[in-house]
Design a protein that fits this description.
Layout: E1 2-7, H1 11-22, E2 27-32, H2 34-44, E3 48-52, H3 60-64, H4 66-74, E4 82-87, H5 92-100, E5 105-108, H6 113-124, E6 129-130, H7 135-142, H8 148-158, H9 163-170, H10 174-188, H11 193-203
Parallel strand pairs: 1-2, 1-3, 3-4, 4-5, 5-6
Helix pairs in contact: 2-4, 5-7, 8-10, 8-11, 9-10, 10-11
């Protein structure tokens, strides 16, 4: 039996996806929001963790750091828990972050439901599974001029966080955050922070 933990912040979509997966005789699934994910991972010890890269919403950057912690809590006697992400082809930023989190599987959210089930089975067997339709998104992700930390700062800024709030979330000084924002503005060719956020949204980085 393949044990799956589905992490999604939307209760409605989380329930619908869990019902789809639960109908399979060889897969056992538990669903959780971000707040309870680590606890659920520790108790379930899943083989696969399925995460929607676009579902984090407010505080997205701080939650991105939760994925390794969830995977760590999920790993047990069966070995390491593998990561399968639900992604959008037009959003290379989340694809890059998923790759940096060492995701083994990538499913296009516009793919037929069967692709998700196939992906779960492949990833549970430690086999890479990538939707062909995400290929161009990966090429775009490779061309993003910002580092992972800069993308995290930009994501929080795009959520409306102030410099002080970003600094507290990332455990950095206000001056360091100002330096990151200056670098982001320069690398994106933006006029200011607001323009950098506009560009990042247009390019699908955050």
């Amino acid at each position: 039996m393949i044990r799956v933990l589905l992490v999604h912040e939307s209760c409605l979509l989380r329930s619908a996806l869990a019902a789809l997966i639960r109908a399979e005789p060889d897969i056992d699934v538990a669903a959780s929001g971000w707040r309870d994910a680590r606890c659920r991972a520790r108790s379930l010890q899943p083989h696969v963790c399925v995460v929607d890269t676009d579902c984090a919403g407010s505080g997205a950057a701080s939650r991105k750091g939760e994925v390794p912690k969830i995977l760590g809590a999920a790993s047990g006697e069966h070995g390491a828990c593998e990561l399968l992400v639900l992604a959008s082809a037009g959003r290379p930023g989340p694809l890059r972050r998923a790759h940096e989190a060492q995701a083994l599987g990538y499913i296009n959210k516009n793919a037929p439901p069967q692709r998700l089930l196939d992906g779960i089975r492949h990833v549970a067997n430690k086999e890479r599974f990538v939707d062909d339709s995400l290929g161009y998104g990966f090429l775009q992700a490779a061309e993003i001029p910002l580092t992972q930390r800069e993308l995290g700062v930009l994501s929080l800024a795009a959520d409306g966080a102030s410099i002080a709030e970003i600094a507290r979330t990332l455990h950095l000084s206000n001056g360091t955050i100002r330096n990151y924002l200056a670098a982001i503005t320069r690398k994106t060719g933006a006029r200011n922070r607001v323009d950098a956020i506009r560009i990042s949204h247009a390019e699908g980085w955050v």
